[in-house]
Amino acid sequence: MIEHSHLKIIQALHANGTLTEAANALCLSQPALSHQISYLEKKLGITLWEREGRSLRLTQAGTLLLEVANQVLPVLSQAEKTLAAYSEGRQGILRIGVECYPCFEWLTGMIGQFMQQLPDIDIDIVQKFQFSGLEGLLNHHIDVLITPDLVKKAHIDYEILAEYQLVLLASTDHPLANIKQLTPEHLSQETLLTFPVPLERLDILTHFLTPAHLAPEKIKQIESLEIMLQTTALKRGVCVLPEWLVDIKNKDLRLKKIRIGKKGLFQKLYLALRKPDKTIPYIKKFIATGQKIVNNSIS
């Protein structure tokens, strides 16, 4: 009963706010769009939108249909791309979800090698999700998810790509540059620069500071890795990054690596995928390539 075109209409109404702008976005005349909406409402037996002055407001039923559209249309779009790839003789499309900022850094380095090995595979990289990366994987919006978090779910498997050490990074003339290892007390007096992620996902807090009942003096979130490194070099804060990433980026900056705690702070990098997809040849190749390149970068 509900067709692909109906879902696109409800998305256009929500995104554009007026019937005229929605019609323009869909390359339809306003009367044609009104007719299609009226036809759909008649079929469903319920009103989907109401006028509020010159704007439109979705009803409860319209909002429900919009949620369906947001879930279904990306899946249909990707299915169409994959089928097109099959029809053109290509093996398929690999949609990669990236759920951490450092993950994206090494991914950009390995994609080239992977595509050289399998030139018939198209790559899509997704960094932003409507809900979460794991939900994107379960809803078939992506095929694999690179993440530092292992969250057990039915029908999802995890492959360990690598284990690496997190280190504190400070300017070479920062007072902390003279210490051999970081204590929670050291960091409680500093501005901690982090990527814009929920605090509960920061290992330096959950596994180091929180158990000691301490917190940084201030937390400042920065989206750009380069700006974070420059800010650290200028002694406007300290940051915690994977050691392998520091070794790559700390070539022209005067930055000092400091071990976190007596034994160091370690983290695993995972690749999550749907269990039935483990047998797909190009996904198996991606896992093998990722494990090899990540470990080479870290070692």
Concise overview:
The protein is 44% helix and 24% strand. The protein is of the alpha/beta class and 299 residues long. Helix 1 (4-16) crosses helix 4 (60-87).
Set down the secondary structure blueprint.
Layout (H helix, E strand, L loop, with lengths): L3 H13 L2 H7 L4 H15 L4 E4 L2 E4 L1 H28 L4 E7 L2 H17 L3 E6 L6 H6 L5 E4 L8 E16 L9 E2 L1 H4 L3 E4 L8 H7 L8 E4 L3 H9 L4 E5 H7 L5 E6 L4 E10 L6 H18 L1
Parallel strand pairs: 3-4, 3-5, 7-11, 8-9, 8-10
Antiparallel strand pairs: 1-2, 5-12, 6-10, 6-11, 6-12
Helix pairs in contact: 1-2, 1-4, 2-3, 5-11
Helix share of residues?
40-55%
Question: Average pLDDT value?
Answer: 86
Reported by name, the CATH topology of the largest domain is D-Maltodextrin-Binding Protein, domain 2
- Silhouette: globular
- CATH class group of the largest domain: Alpha Beta
What does this structure look like?
With 299 residues, the chain is α/β, with parallel strands linked by helices. It has three domains: 4-75, Winged helix-like DNA-binding domain superfamily/Winged helix DNA-binding domain (Arc Repressor Mutant, subunit A), CATH 1.10.10; 86-161 and 268-298, D-Maltodextrin-Binding Protein, domain 2 (3-Layer(aba) Sandwich); 164-267, 3-Layer(aba) Sandwich (D-Maltodextrin-Binding Protein, domain 2). 44% of the residues lie in helices and 24% in strands. The chain contains eleven helices and twelve strands. The strands form two sheets. Strands 3, 4, 5, 6, 7, 8, 9, 10, 11 and 12 form a ten-stranded mixed beta sheet that branches. Helix 5 links the parallel strand 3 and strand 4. Helix 1 packs across helix 2 (19-25), helix 1 (4-16) packs across helix 4 and helix 2 (19-25) packs across helix 3 (30-44).
